[in-house]
Amino acid sequence: MASLNDGPSTASSAVTASPAANSHASPSSVLLILGSCTSLQFGAALAAQLFDDLGSWGVTVLRLGLAAVALVAVTRPSIRRWTRRQWLGVALFGLAMAGMNGFFYAAIARIPLGTAVAIEFLGPLVLAAVLSRKRADIVCVALAAAGMALLGVESLVGDDPLDPVGVCFVLLAAASWAGYIVTSARVGQRVPGAGGLAMAMVVGTLAVLPMGLPGAVVGLTDPHLLGLAALTALLASIIPYSLEFAALRRMPRHVFGVLMSLEPVVAALAGWLILDQRLGLWRSVAICLVVAASVGAAIANRPRGPRRRQNSAADDDHDLTPDARTPTPALPDPR
């Protein structure tokens, strides 16, 4: 994500939905997650087709801006009653969202979609290892790092090297995703409903506006491009957020995390079908290693049994595992 993140992910479901208490996922909830992943990544692939006309930052402005307008209209947040602490949380959430989406789109303008999503997963994986300090999480990060090393070697000796600027952008997106997880959880605690997400998207739009204004103006004045941008916002933000929100109410978080770990595979498929991006053997193996690491992290952090909830910030931090990554997008990623 995901984002908004195409990215990864999706809005933070953690902001607006409570995980289901049951330990199994129904077929309908699995379909909801698969639908979310598919919508998010195909939305990212559609966004990439607009880069030539609007630029990656212009597309980011339109995607965030259109989704923000729709969400503000639906939620009508009571911002006049917010405290400075609430506004600070929303502002940080919006900045993280802007970085996650903007840097991710800048990355997929230069490197394949599936590869970018796989690298971006380093953000939540490293965050989980830092917060939990479990051996299993560290092993999962090492597994993902092995995948990244494989990408690096393949890029150096292969016929189709990765653009180093694109790699830097997606690493910034990964760091922003980690920040998105933490800040979305804070907003979920401090701001009731989805109003915090709506205003964070407004902040995110304003944050990327200086880089994307020229492209956004072109998009707003061309009905065809505006329609495609609106479709991107629908596929990459509104639909994934809604589906993830519904899924989290029907399944436990660790199952949610396992299913969301399939995003790099779906992204690679979307890149192949829509953008004609072929990954090759080694990049495919690297993506599989990242998927395995994400699945392992989700399983390692599943609840072991009933436990008392503490209202301390430390406990809230330890709750931030990769499967809680879809903050309110559930409208992600980043992406």
From TrEMBL:
Please indicate if the UniProt record lists Transmembrane helix as a keyword: yes
Q: Which domain of life is it from?
A: Bacteria
Alphabetical UniProt keywords: Membrane, Transmembrane, Transmembrane helix
Q: Which InterPro entries match?
A: AA-Vitamin_Transporters (IPR050638), EamA_dom (IPR000620), EmrE-like (IPR037185)
Q: Where in the cell is it found?
A: Membrane
GO CC term, one of those recorded? membrane
- Span-the-membrane segments of this chain are 57-75, 87-107, 113-131, 138-158, 164-182, 194-213, 225-243, 255-275, 281-300
Family stated for the protein in its record: Belongs to the EamA transporter family.
Please identify the protein, giving its name as recorded.
EamA family transporter
Q: Which organism is it from?
A: Gordonia asplenii
